Amino acid sequence: MRIRKFKKEDARKVYYLIRKALVEVNSKDYSKSIIEYIISNNTPTELTRRSKLRDVYVAVQGEQIMGTANLNGNVLSTIFVNPKYHGKGIGTKLIEFLEKKLRKKGHTSAVIPSSITAYSFYKQLGYKKIKTKITKNFGKVLIMEKEL
Question: How many whole angstroms separate alpha carbon 66 and alpha carbon 102?
Fold first, then answer.
């Protein structure tokens, strides 16, 4: 597996990966309306637009996109792994890759706006909850931080 920059041609595959993760995994912790909103916020068009504003990466094995993550300043977001590959270290590799980028840029901390679903995963990686936000569109979001 390798991690590379997102390309416009990846947009549809990344959209399906995010949708699959939200429906199969995050839907256990969030309402249908929140899941639908997040899916609609990650369409191929929106993913392509966003990739021009921040660094977007994909974890790939051959032609298969296994995971994705965004980096904007010192904020890691839109981190998703295809549920079929959960527990294989892909999410950890994506986070470590982004943390390394942050260190190279001189950042001393990383911030992740975490879902309830991913909270324990980020906690295992050394992130600590610094505050909780409740929003209409995204529901409960746990802001987590880690010193680098």
Answer: 22
Helices (H) and strands (E) in the chain, counts: 5, 7
The dihedral region occupied by 86, where left means phi > 0, alpha psi between -120 and 50, and beta the remainder, is beta
Long-range own/partner contacts, residues 118-125 (CB < 8 A, 24 or more apart): 118/79, 119/144, 121/91, 122/95, 125/92, 125/95
pLDDT in tens, 53-91: 999 999 999 989 999 999 999 999 999 999 999 999 999
Which CATH number is associated with domain 2-147?
3.40.630.30
- H helices present in 55-148, as ranges: 90-104, 119-124
Q: Residue 43 carries which DSSP code?
A: -
In whole angstroms, what is the distance from residue 104 CA to residue 47 CA? 25
Residue with tokens 């966003």: 50
Q: Show the tokens assigned to 44.
A: 């191929």
Give per-residue pLDDT as tens, 85-116. 999 999 999 999 999 999 999 999 999 999 99
Give me 74's structure tokens: 């010192």
Using CB atoms within 10 Å of the CB of residue 44, give its burial: 0 to 12 exposed, 13 to 18 middle, 19+ buried.
Answer: middle
Q: Dihedral sign, CA of 112, 115, 118, 121?
A: positive
